[in-house]
Amino acid sequence: IVYSEQDKDQVKVPDEGIYFSDFNLEQQELVRELVAEYFRNFNPAEMPTINAFCNKQLRFFYVDSREKGKPHYYRLINGQQIIEYENYDNHIHCFWRSDNDFGEKVYKVK
User: How far apart are CA 56 and CA 89, in angstroms?
Assistant: First the structure.
């Protein structure tokens, strides 16, 4: 799901997912590596540090059909930023968003 400025009042991110702090150290390192992969695509001066992104509010949420090649989705949300990835019919969308894109709040956490 890709949201734009006109969608900001309708976008509500559910309070779901596993807290980063509930992962073991190996799993936490995998999450950090995943976040780093996203952040490498942006201007480092505009990005938080990986440790700042992986704060105590960070949650990981994943959905799939459990069949290879079928749609799947994950989200990392920390209360201020969100990383989303979705793959439907081998068509991938992924993005990082701040809660203050374009000077406006673009999503609300319940």
Answer: 34
Residue 99 is encoded by which pair of tokens?
Answer: 């809660």
**Helix runs in 1-110, H state only:** 25-39, 50-53
Q: What is the pLDDT of residues 19-31, one digit of tens each?
A: 999 999 999 999 9
CA 100, chain centre distance (Å): 15
Supply 75's token pair. Answer: 């989200």
Please check whether residue 92 is in contact with residue 86, taking contact to mean a CB–CB distance below 8 angstroms. Answer: yes
Using DSSP, state whether 36 is helix, strand or coil: helix
| Calpha distance 30→32 (Å, rounded) | 5
**pLDDT tens-digit readout, 39-98:** 998 888 888 899 999 999 999 998 887 777 788 889 999 988 889 999 887 788 888 887
Question: Measuring CA to CA, how many Å separate 2 from each of 40, 46, 49, 67?
Answer: 21, 21, 24, 24
Q: What is the pTM of this model?
A: 0.74
